[in-house]
Amino acid sequence: MMSTEAGPVEPVTAESGSAAASAAAASFAALLSKIDYLGPTDVENIRQAYRFADEAHLGQLRKNGDPYITHPIAVAAQCAEWKLDAQALMAALMHDAIEDCGVTKQEIVERFGAPVAELVDGLTKLERLEFTSREQNQAESFRKMLLAMAKDVRVILIKLADRTHNMRTMGDMPRDKWHRISSETLEIYAPIAHRLGLNFTYRELQDLSFRFLHPWRYEVLARALEKARGRRRDLIARVQHEVEDAFARHSMPVRILGREKTLYSVYRKMDSKHLSFAQVTDIYGFRIVVPELTDCYTALGLLHQLYKPLPGKFRDYVAIPKVNGYQSLHTTLVGPFGTNIEFQLRTHSMDVVAESGVAAHWLYKANEPGSDTSQRLGTQWLQSLLDIQQETHDASEFWDHIKIDLFPDAVYVFTPKSKILSLPRGATVVDFAYAIHSDVGHRTVGVRINGEQHPLRTELNNGDVVEVITDDKAEPNPAWLSFVKTGRARSKIRHHLKAVAQDKAIELGERMLRQAIRSEGIARLPDEEGEQSAVWDKLLRFTGNKNRVELLSDIGMGRRIAGMVGKKLAVLLGEIGVKPDAVLISRERYNATGEESMAQGVVTLDGSEGVSVQYASCCKPIPGDKIVGYLGRGEGLVVHAEDCPTARRLMARDAERFIEVEWADEPVRSFETDVIVTVTNGKGVLARVALSIASAEADITHVNMGDEPAQTATDIRFSVAVRDRQHLADVLRSLKRTPSVVKAQRFKAAPRN
Ligand code: MN
Fold it and tell me: N or C terminus: which one in the chain shows less Cβ crowding within 10 Å?
């Protein structure tokens, strides 16, 4: 690519005359000769970008001693081959300026505009991504991440041009770098070129990688191939002649090109299919480019008359294009001397797409303004992309569309050890944690994304480095279920919560059953082992439970009433001679305030109970309220305020399902309750009220405004989380002092009937 061909040499730097400056100027002159498809303003902008980049890279040298600027110029020249627009060429010239020369994005915005700066910035980001060391065997994920991170297809094209030039000049690099860079090119960049249909670049990258990965094998194969071609020169000439003749007789103007296999494809076939060199290379290929689409089929007929087709080798990629837009008819024929010859037939536009893929768009725009060739770009995928590009003139929207086709809904992120994980788009930190391991998920308490703390519900972006912070004592929060995206996280959280609920229910059930038999005058539950164990067996037969744990869990969940089970248990214990203690009975039943009974009989609540205990949504009790516990059917213990109308109604109907509950001295969390705030309408009222609640150190968990804005006064209902009644009183006092607040009071639901 380092062209030194003659041309108008531009004196561009103050050091013109020096060898370095003239080498740079010469290669820029070569670039200029390639951009005659652009207008004078564009050319002038490119010249400015060149001066800017040249100054930035001043004094830096390539490994071969050339001034560094020759590299960006070569990259821009490749982009010019694809006829990319001026913005892309400017970005190509400045693609290493941010990373290597301390130029800022802002400087580029100011001098060349935001679109060019965005392109350069995108390239810089990809460059940095490359340096993030990654685990082996993740080429595919890395490739997808690269593609997903680029916001504009031009970024990828410039990147491919950059890589192509670096591969072409690899010989200047130290040998110990060859392997890493070449295998990266082979695994990541060549497939990207292929996927975007840039077949020429694809083959070149493969061959160059092969050459630097296995220099010796490359040499041997190259020489062998050269020899084989020499031997068969007569055959190739004869086929060429016969085919030309056949088309001339039917007056169809075609271009016939001999197709050479790339060294890498020969090598790979020999390697993967265990074929000999002769088996791989004894196949010759020709490409025939015809004027019109229908000519493909006519030409096929002509060829099949000329040589006998090999059965099972015909492929119609014209009617059904490959996903990357490739179109051609393929057939294999038996030629002179019984040699197999592969033919590809296609139109000129198909040929351009086949060689340049996505870049064909710019090639067309540049070469044939207003021509009908674009409508002959038959492939649907590419065609739809080109339509979008034409309609929007927006390369990033264009690219979004390609991306949706390439990898619909994924986001690619790094673990701190540079392993890449693929998650569905919209996935959060919690999804990430569960994707690593369910133990990590369960214990997640925080996260650093790219080194900064973020909330757990944060959605991840491509390329994020995500470090989960765990705590051994942490447990999954049921609220996570409202934002996780992956089924894995959801089911793991659910499963864990269920298991925890089960444990809590068993514990609660045991406490309740113990309390129940104390009321029968028996101090403790029968032993699980020894002679008393038979009592459990009988009790289980009575209740129909499989085992003791299931019975206790049923009691805890309210599926069975502790009092009734307790009565039966007392009878069974009586049968084996355990007599009720009359003192205990009277103390439990008539003197329930005794210290001991309080300690053992009443269920104490501190807010850590999890899902086996619910705080009723009708009255929303908070510490300090007098409360009662109701064993709902199958829903565990429901805690109501004692004066709650709903609780009163249940009490009248279902008294035996109520148990005594009390607040712990120091609850471990805050509790939600509702307040009604009546305000006069006016600007910023809601904000003032919210601020007032916050200043009393309470969290607002929900706001509900009536929709009668026409009235002078409005009721706003807030759900607030408070420590206890005292705290709630503080909140209400703070509210009453707030301007525009007419009234503030705790909300209590009206009795339902
Ligand atoms: Mn570069």
Answer: C
